[in-house]
Design brief:
The chain is an alpha+beta fold. It has helices at residues 18-22, 31-40, 64-73, and strands at 52-55, 62-63, 76-80, 83-86.
Length: 95
């Protein structure tokens, strides 16, 4: 049997938006605090890195990890949870 893929984030440390939320890849969080914060988080950035994100106007999606890279470069914004809007003209300002 194949392994079951988990789509929910149990802790901040497994979230793709860790660097976005804490402005560092190694925040000073305890394990319990990371789990508590992740369970209460409702951010559009929240999700596992291997989750497939739909891209507005495209047939194929991309991983959440690649989507977060585009957002940090200013080339895309979140339209909704799991839906990304890419701007081809260059960096954009958020909503």
């Amino acid at each position: 049997m194949s392994r079951l893929k988990r789509k929910t984030v149990a802790s901040c440390y497994e979230c793709a938006a860790l660097a976005y939320c804490y402005h560092t890849k190694n925040p000073d969080l305890t394990r319990d605090e990371g789990r508590r914060v992740a369970s209460q988080c409702h951010s559009l950035h929240k999700g596992v890195t291997t989750e497939t994100i739909h891209v507005e106007g495209k047939d194929r999606g991309m991983s959440r990890k690649k989507a977060e890279k585009l957002i940090t470069k200013g080339r895309a914004i979140w339209a909704d949870y799991g839906l990304l809007r890419i701007h081809e003209q260059g960096p954009v300002q958020g909503p």
